[in-house]
Amino acid sequence: MATDPHALIRLARECLDRSYAPYSRFHVAAAVVDDSGRVFTGVNVENISYGLSMCAERVAIFSAVAAGARRIAALAVTGSGADLLSPCGACRQVLAEFAAPDVVVWCDAPGEPHRWTVSELLPHGFAASRLGKP
Length: 134
Prior knowledge:
The protein has a single domain (5-129), classed as Cytidine Deaminase, domain 2 (3-Layer(aba) Sandwich). It contains 4 helices and 5 strands, in the order αββαβαββα. It has helices at 5-14, 56-66, 89-98, 118-121, and strands at residues 28-34, 39-43, 72-79, 99-107, 114-117. Strands 2-1-3-4-5 form a 5-stranded mixed β-sheet. The longest helix is centred in the middle third of the chain and has 11 residues, at 56-66. The protein starts with a helix and ends in a 13-residue tail after the last helix.
């Protein structure tokens, strides 16, 4: 699963209609695979107080963590109304917490999915190693 971007994007697309985006009308869904091969999905959930909204990528990652995952092996993201989207800065930092720098992030795009690695999306991310942590 982690190496099949089309399957992972398909799983994200399947939950896109569950997104709660009454304010922006920009619906986003994500799917993550943990290092055990389990798949978790998430959708963006907006709030009238925008700072309380949650991105699909973080919902999927936090769902994986709540189920016991500690390492993410791949992530795919899709959305409505954009030819190519990528995780926001907050999602990139959360992804860096739970994924190695070489983990692939697949972004839905017309034609073939676009591929980035975590380190390409967040080249100088804040990491535990900067605090002297393993």
